[in-house]
Design a protein that fits this description.
Layout lengths: L1 E2 L2 E2 L5 E2 L7 H13 L3 E3 L8 H10 L7 E6 L9 H14 L5 E6 L8 H13 L3 E7 L3 H8 L4 E7 L8 H10 L2 E5 L7 H11 L3 H12 L12 H9 L7 H7 L1
Parallel strand pairs: 3-4, 4-5, 5-6, 6-7, 7-8, 8-9
Antiparallel strand pairs: 1-2
Helix pairs in contact: 1-2, 1-9, 3-4, 7-8
Length: 252
């Protein structure tokens, strides 16, 4: 699929548990070598160690590798311009880059209009320090308000087999050419039906869950988190699983 001007594999890597150890630096390098192109992090993940580890492993980031990060999470006031600027500057330092490919407003601040938060992010986009902008955990009206400030390349919302309140957002993004990034994509379960279909395909239930998400929408780009190279390779192998229409509906 296209994210901005890059063709990207449709399964990425979430790094909300990534700490700065020698093993984790090696893991991030191996993940990219295995075919991961989208690495998702945030200013707050593991107190900044997630961003630092990704930088240690990959900086300068190889061509075709997307590192997405986020700022503005933590409750009322975290979307204020001065807070976002401080977090953005810290992310640039921790990632050892002068250009973040994809930067999300991590949450809409209840005390700050979304337009005001995104104007701050747009300043960095206009300066060439951010290439593409995303927003997280939002409704359609918030996406439309955001798009009046700056083009939105990606929306990251909570979505999986058990958490389906954003079905309308998934379809909206597909119709508007916006990448939909479900976080916690493997949480929840599909019960006996999922297990039966997994056995039929000689796959794990997690792989079938990812295959279901990919079939659910052409805009879908899951970012399952793992610190295991074996699990990561299993996740990527889900790209080769094609569910039948009957299997898809049975899981749905």
């Amino acid at each position: 699929m296209k994210l901005g001007d890059i063709d990207v594999a449709r399964i990425g890597l979430g790094t909300n548990r990534l700490t700065k150890t020698r093993d984790n630096v090696a893991f991030v390098k191996a993940a990219v070598a295995a075919g991961v192109q989208m690495i998702d992090t945030a200013h707050l993940y593991t107190g900044g160690q997630s961003e630092e580890t990704i930088a240690e492993a990959l900086s300068p980031f190889p061509e075709g590798c997307i590192v997405a990060t986020k700022g503005g999470f933590g409750g009322p006031g975290r979307g204020r311009p001065e807070v976002l600027r401080a977090e953005l500057e810290q992310s640039l330092r921790q990632l050892r880059t002068d250009n973040i490919f994809l930067y999300y407003l991590h949450r809409v601040d209840p005390e700050t209009p979304i337009e005001e938060s995104l104007e701050t992010i747009k300043e960095y986009s206009d300066q060439g320090k951010i290439r593409h902008v995303g927003i997280s955990e939002v409704a359609i009206d918030q996406i439309e308000r955001a798009r009046r400030v700056v083009p939105i390349a990606a929306v990251q919302n909570h979505y999986n087999l058990s958490e389906r309140k954003y079905e309308g957002i998934v379809d909206y993004c597909a119709g508007e050419g916006i990448v939909f990034v479900p976080f916690f994509p493997l949480r929840g379960g599909g019960g006996p039906v999922l297990a039966e279909i997994a056995e039929r395909h000689g796959a794990t239930t997690q792989q079938i869950t990812l295959a279901w998400l990919l079939r659910r929408s052409p805009a879908m780009l899951p970012i399952p988190g793992t610190l295991s190279l074996d699990h990561l390779k299993q996740n990527l192998a889900a790209l080769n699983i094609e569910l039948t229409a009957a299997e898809f509906e049975a899981i749905r």
